[in-house]
Design a protein that fits this description.
single chain, alpha/beta, 4-stranded mixed sheet, 9 helices, 13 strands, about 30% helix
Length: about 290
């Protein structure tokens, strides 16, 4: 089967700092790296490293050759990534000594994806394939509706969070992934708890505390492996990519969540976004936690 990902492709500029700068403060960076990023690209890389067949649907502008080569090197299909004039999406990321980050994002070409380009990509899909999207591109609702009508399982990662965008996607989603802060924001905006959203499966990620899965039999808690975080950038994308790869290969939700938690825990011990996402063999060799 195939995972079709309508998602962002960014050039990340990552600065190591002693702490996240305060308003008006200037800090000297202790290190700098540039590489592939974007929630969409990170998810595609994670799913591919987990062993999934991934087709990325998106757009890039100028200066994208290096990140496209990196994506392709990880095994992500790029036949439906459009080329545009103007800037490729990029992010400026500061990472503090404890591994926490602050990010400034320029969407760039990520917001120029045409509906007919998405339709062309989904024309190759089969019933039972997975479609996933996030909030760093345009056209999510239309694409999700197309995917659902074609019999794909629709997954929506509700980040960066915007209540209106999430509410519009709920009727099309079979699986919703959001973090604890986003879940609280959505409940405040809609008056509905995660188990009352009308989505078959809702997963709320809670960082080092693990995740809660709201499924057909109610809520189930899963703990995360205990690690010392070095860089949390891309941890949520790693979780989502591994989860979908597990589901796509036929794992049940519990097994796929366990695999994804181990992958995300291993990711935060490594610097960088896509480059820090572990391979499937590394994840399977890592410690696990029981539900």
């Amino acid at each position: 089967m195939t995972i079709f990902n309508l998602g962002s492709i960014n050039v990340d500029h990552v600065y190591q700092v002693p702490r996240i700068p305060a308003l008006g403060e200037t800090l000297a960076s202790t290190d700098y790296a540039q590489g592939l990023g974007g929630k969409g690209a990170n998810l595609s890389v994670a799913a591919a490293k987990a062993g999934g067949r991934v087709v990325h649907v998106g757009a890039v502008g100028e200066g994208a050759e290096r990140v496209l080569a990196e994506l392709e090197g990880y095994g992500v299909g790029l036949e439906h990534v459009a080329r545009r004039e103007g800037p490729t999406g990029h992010a400026v990321i500061t990472v503090d000594a404890g591994g926490e980050n602050a990010i400034v994002l320029l969407p760039g070409a990520n917001m120029t994806i045409a509906g007919e380009e998405v339709a062309a990509a989904l024309g190759a899909a089969q019933a039972g394939d997975i479609f996933v999207t996030q909030n760093e591109t345009n056209g999510q609702e239309d694409a999700a509706a197309r995917a659902s009508a074609a019999g794909l399982r629709v997954c929506y990662c509700a980040a960066p969070f915007e209540a209106g965008a999430v509410s519009a996607m709920l009727p099309h989603a079979d699986l919703l992934i959001l973090n604890a802060v986003e879940a609280a924001q959505l409940q405040e905006a809609t008056g509905r708890a995660p188990d009352a959203l009308g989505v078959a499966d809702v997963i709320v990620t809670r960082g080092a505390e693990g995740v809660t899965w709201y499924g057909p039999e109610g809520a189930a808690e899963f703990s995360a492996p205990k690690v010392t975080a070095r860089d949390t950038t891309g941890a949520g994308d790693t979780f989502a990519g591994y989860l979908l790869a597990g589901l796509d290969e036929g794992q049940g939700m519990e097994a796929a969540i366990g695999l994804a938690l181990r992958a995300a825990a291993l990711k935060v011990t490594r610097p960088g976004a896509a480059a820090g996402i572990p391979l499937r063999g590394e994840v399977e060799a890592s410690p696990s936690e029981n539900k």
